[in-house]
Amino acid sequence: MASNVNPTVRRRRLGQELRKLRELKGMTAEEVAERLLVSQSKISRLENGRRSISQRDVRDLCGVYEVEDQRVVDSLMEMARDSRQQGWWHAFGDIPYSVYIGLETDAESLRVYEPQVITGLLQTRSYAEALIQGALPETSATDIEKRVQVRMRRQDRIAAENNPLRLWVVLDEAALRRVVGNNHVMREQLEHLCELSHLPHVTVQVLPFEAGAHPGLNGQYAILEFSDAADSSVVYLEGVTSDLYLEKANDVQKYAVMYEHLRAQALSVEKSRQFIADVAKRYADST
Fold it and tell me: Start and end of every HTH cro/C1-type domain (predicted)?
């Protein structure tokens, strides 16, 4: 696969273009489904980029929408072809959150709120291993190692010399206090977190217990933004058996406002770094 082709992003862009064509035609997803003798859910999944789309699907949809400009058809067909290629994460087999990885790989910036654990992009290998073992106790050692490798590979976006991911993380104090692995693993993890927080494109804030009630009490979420204006921002909510992706402007705006409140209630960057260092020292004193 060419390095500049991200199948997840191609599917999103293609879905957006197909949705525009349908709306220009004044048709509902249900009407299109009836014309093509498919389910309405298939049309919805094609438009939101959650389902792989074939060139035949594109051809059939362009026929329904009466697209006469062959250049438009050819462009959509090429996007469909690119969207069926495999991203780097496919080499690791079936990854439950592969859609998210595809979005993260292409994102320009990422804002994350984590109430329970250190966010994946900032984890050490030891911490990631202990965390996955604890969260998925019935998972085989082979699958755990596969998940750890994927997590470490995702961190390439942070270390990239050119166009690194701009990352802003708000961590609840609980994420620092919860012992994952043992005290040594935690000390190493928090020292690593402090080190990464000095990077110009990484910002880490701690939301202390004393902040009381706050807008993040409903749980973890992430907001992904992209450099291409054609790609709408996405709010990602991680689930146990399935994940949720919100792309409607109103939904994204609500979560963005919530995030501003979280940042305002959290400690400053400098105080957060000192807070993390103090907790790390306590772990060091306990080993």
Answer: 18-72
188: number of Cβ within 10 Å = 18
Structure tokens at 286: 């306990």
Task: State the DSSP H helix or E strand holding residue 21, giving kind and residue range, or none if neither.
Answer: helix 7-25
Alpha helices by DSSP H, listed for 26-84, are 29-36, 40-47, 55-64, 70-83
| Phi and psi, residue 77, nearest 5° | -65, -40
Show Cβ contacts of residue 232 under 8 Å, excluding neighbours closer than 6 positions. Answer: 16, 226, 247, 249, 252
Residue type (1 letter), 241: T
DSSP 105-145: HH-SEEEEEESSS--GGG--HHHHHHHHHHH-TTS-HHHHH
Distance, C-alpha 90 to centroid of its chain: 16
**Segment 230-264, tens digit of pLDDT:** 678 889 998 877 788 888 889 999 999 999 999 99
Evaluate whether 175 touches 115 at the Cβ level (below 8 Å).
Answer: yes
Strands in 109-114's sheet, in edge-to-edge order, are 202-207, 166-172, 109-114, 221-225, 234-237, 244-246
In the numeric block, which tokens belong to residue 79? 């996007």
* pLDDT at residue 160 greater than cutoff 50: yes
pTM of the entire structure?
Answer: 0.78
pLDDT at 255: 96
* Contact between residue 176 and residue 126 where contact means Cβ atoms under 8 Å apart: no
Report yes or no: 15 and 77 within 8 Å, Cβ to Cβ: no
Cα-based angle 74, 78, 80 (whole degrees, multiple of 5): 115
